[in-house]
Every structure is written in C-alpha cells, then in structure tokens.
Fold this protein.
Amino acid sequence: MKANILNLLFLAFSLTFFSACGGEQKQNTEQTEVNQEQAALYTCPMHPEVTSDKPGKCPECKMNLEKVADAGSQEHEGHAH
C-alpha cells in the first residue's frame, strides 16, 4: 500500500515537473521573437549609410526606410526547398 502511494506521488511530481518545463520553453521562444522584432534595423534603399532602429523616412531623400533582412533569417525567393 505504501509503495503504491509513493509511486503515485512520484508520478504526480514527474508530470508536474515535465509539463512545467515545456511551458517555460514556449514562453522563452515567444520572448525571443519579441526581442528579434525590437532589434530590427531599417535602412534607406538609396542611402544604405542611413540606418534606424524603427521605420520612418530617410532624412536625405524622404524615401521610406526598409527593414533589413536579419543575418539569421533565410529568405529564399524564386526557388522552393
């Protein structure tokens, strides 16, 4: 009887521990995505030396600043994988 109770307690603890770990990883992934969004860099297509951390207009030619592709992102246009 005591062995069954101990086994049930161990099972309950194990399930709680492993389910909590999965939720934390999901939260960390969402936070990483938010940080990457905030770390975006914008530049002018005509004046690449003009950069900003938020969208806006180029002070030299008044064109819209465009988001620079992240070094880690892999955009594959024109072909499929």
The chain is about 45% helix and 5% strand. The radius of gyration is 24 Å. Helices lie at 2-38. The chain has a mean pLDDT of 74.
